[in-house]
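2024-03-11 09:14:02 INFO queue: dequeued item Glyoxylase, beta-lactamase superfamily II, len=226
2024-03-11 09:14:02 INFO validating residues
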Amino acid sequence: MPMKGSGPATEYREIDRREHGVGWMAYPNERMQRASHAFEVDGDVYVVDPVDVDGLDDLLAEFGEVAGVLILLDRHKRDSAAVANRHDVPVYVPEWMDGVAGELDAPVERVHVELEDTGVGVHKLIDNRFWQEAAVAIEDHDELLVPESVGTASYFLSASERLGVHPALRLKPPTKLKRFSPERVLVGHGTGVHEDAAEALHDAVSGSRSRTPALYAKIGKEFVFG
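2024-03-11 09:14:37 INFO prediction written
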């Protein structure tokens, strides 16, 4: 199983389908489990951190017309420009996020705390020279989308967790996430948490440090023994 898929993506695995959105993994067999998402607000579809794949436009059309592409992590430029240009829409980037807009070959709009007039909140989680990340709170759907700080891919999770803090953040977890109590948590690596999501989120952050040794041991075994 490769860590990260490469080359043109020709098939995807659908994840996290619900009434107002859907997610997909463009390389279903990769270890990183990169997840992309789309959500609908009043007939407009916003695409988040997309990895492009054959058939994507048909999937998005099920929910409405694409109105924009949103980048939530500085490292998640992925195929944002290609998807935005194909639909003739801008790429939205948080106004405080550096070094992203200039690398995009597409129109860019800066986001302050709300995505246009959708009522969708864009919240700063991490902002330093190594890591810039925002989370999206879709209050009308009671959803929280976190691209990197937490995830459900195997290398995020200790044995007791349904949602885990990123291995690189374990000793200094993103405590800002404790302010949210969503019904559903969607992530950038793995499938979302759709039941007791607030409990899983708060447990992930609160137990991050104490479970670090167990997680690191697990990751070591997985990478050595496959």
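2024-03-11 09:14:37 INFO annotate: The longest helix spans residues 212-225.
2024-03-11 09:14:38 INFO item closed
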